[in-house]
């Protein structure tokens, strides 16, 4: 199949090791920058999704019994194939998602290859437990009881992926799930599914057995619902909105299916008076530029101590106003489009809501003067208060809100005044205070004087930002069940 970004191919589903025509036809995948058609994605029927899950169930026994080294070899070959095709894969990803060329190559396709390579490193699945001396009693003679905690595959895993990274997000689910001996059904986001089919091609070429990986797509809720409610599915791994995550959890709860949920975020960036303000502004400013703010980990709420509040607002406004907005393929562009016209309208409606709530629009707030594409200007809202919806709710666009705070207690209170708790940030010259505040925040992760990530650290959220943890070895734990084996010595 072609990997060209402009190809009008009719993509087929990948089920049971075969490329299958969809029962319900195709739909257009739209380039957010040009509004042109990137390709035609397949619309799977409910029966086809259930067939994919059944294929994964059939393949589970043999795949789960392969050695970790055999599974690792397939993942390593997949990583090599992805790296070899980085440019065409990134061209397609950029066309589907609107990401800039640098983001598509480095943070989408490049990270996907790195994730397959990471899980091509087998880890022990058994952990010895200290022996226990049991006295004679109703359960038998006195004995020294040995035990092992053994990680077993969960089974068939449905991976429902997000539109904001059509390579790294699916790879972060598929690779550790396969490494643990699971089989998968992947339901990509409807906006940019073609990249996930290219990933399936790479896996197929790398030697993945039929049925171990299946990919089904669709525009409405039907395909996603079928991928969750299939009786052959044991676990659902989902990245997306809290509202959809709640519905998935309700369905999973009926049959006690395992869940891994990475949901919304409203990251607070606490900037103390003694912070390196230029460094803080540079970190926070990535919200405006990196994938146009469509990232759940973005520091979208800035809590600036009063002594540096005006400086933070001024510097953030200057940062935003200097960012080139436009064609993501053009050299020098830092802010591309958001994913769709509907999402652009949603982001703009939040900016207007902020105005009505009393926020001051310092920069942005108007649609960029471009002939086509779904663009939103980097926007800074200052003089906000904790009760405003623009402060409490996830906007998922290049919009940053700023609030003042008085002291450490005030900062923690404001940071936690949201339903979300994915990743927060603390900037302070006093590292002891920064770590003290970090430990008090109700967030799954905290960046201290950085927006960088350690890709072996556990990733996930508190509150309505998710359930469970992945990344690094924690992902292997997430896609496994613990079994205890006990014996008398």
TrEMBL record:
Q: What Pfam families has UniProt attached to this entry?
A: Aldedh (PF00171)
Domain Aldehyde dehydrogenase: from-to ranges = 19-484
Keyword annotations = Oxidoreductase
Q: Which SUPFAM superfamilies match?
A: ALDH-like (SSF53720)
What CDD domains does the record point to?
ALDH_CddD-AldA-like
Its protein name is: Aldehyde dehydrogenase family protein
Source species: Streptomyces neyagawaensis
């Amino acid at each position: 199949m072609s990997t060209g970004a402009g190809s009008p191919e009719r993509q087929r589903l990948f089920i049971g090791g075969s490329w299958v025509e969809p029962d319900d036809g195709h739909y257009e995948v739209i380039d957010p920058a040009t509004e042109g058609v990137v390709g035609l994605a397949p619309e799977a029927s409910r029966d086809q999704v259930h067939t994919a899950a059944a294929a994964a169930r059939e393949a589970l026994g043999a795949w789960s019994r392969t050695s970790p080294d055999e599974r690792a070899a397939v993942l390593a070959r997949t990583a090599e194939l992805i790296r070899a095709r980085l440019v065409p894969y990134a061209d397609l990803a950029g066309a589907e998602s609107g990401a800039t060329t640098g983001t598509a190559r480095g943070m989408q396709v490049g990270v996907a290859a790195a994730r397959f390579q990471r899980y091509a490193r087998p880890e022990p699945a058994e952990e010895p437990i200290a022996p226990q001396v049991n006295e004679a009693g109703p359960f038998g003679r006195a004995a020294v009881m040995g035990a092992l905690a053994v990680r077993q595959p969960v089974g068939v895993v449905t991976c429902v992926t997000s539109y904001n990274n059509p390579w790294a997000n699916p790879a972060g689910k598929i690779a550790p799930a396969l490494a643990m001996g699971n089989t998968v059904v992947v339901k990509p986001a409807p906006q940019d599914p073609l990249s996930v089919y290219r990933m399936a091609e790479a896996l197929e070429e790398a030697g993945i057995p039929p049925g171990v990986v299946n990919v089904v797509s669709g525009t409405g809720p039907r395909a996603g619902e079928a991928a969750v409610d299939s009786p052959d599915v044991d676990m659902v791994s989902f990245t997306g909105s809290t509202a959809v995550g709640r519905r998935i959890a309700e369905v999973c709860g009926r049959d006690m299916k395992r869940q891994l949920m990475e949901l919304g975020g409203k990251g607070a960036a606490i900037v103390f008076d003694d912070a390196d303000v230029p460094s803080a502004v540079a970190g926070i400013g990535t919200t405006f530029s990196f994938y146009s703010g469509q990232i759940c980990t973005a520091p979208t709420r800035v809590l600036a101590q009063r002594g540096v509040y005006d400086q933070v607002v001024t510097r953030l406004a200057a940062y935003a106003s200097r960012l080139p907005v436009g064609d993501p393929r053009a050299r020098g562009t830092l802010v591309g489009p958001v994913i769709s016209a509907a999402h652009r309208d949603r982001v703009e409606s939040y900016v207007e809501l902020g105005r009505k709530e009393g926020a001051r629009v310092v920069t942005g707030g108007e649609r960029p003067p471009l002939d086509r594409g779904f663009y939103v200007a980097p926007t800074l809202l200052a003089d906000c208060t904790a009760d405003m919806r623009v402060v409490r709710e996830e906007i998922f666009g290049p919009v940053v809100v700023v609030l003042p705070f008085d002291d450490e207690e005030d900062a923690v209170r404001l940071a936690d005044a949201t339903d979300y708790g994915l990743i927060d940030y603390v900037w302070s010259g006093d590292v002891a205070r920064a770590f003290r505040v970090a430990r008090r925040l109700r967030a799954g992760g905290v960046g201290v004087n950085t927006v960088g990530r350690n890709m072996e650290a556990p990733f996930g959220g508190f509150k309505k930002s998710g359930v469970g943890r992945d990344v690094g070895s924690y992902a292997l734990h997430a896609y496994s069940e613990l079994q205890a084996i006990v014996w008398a010595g």
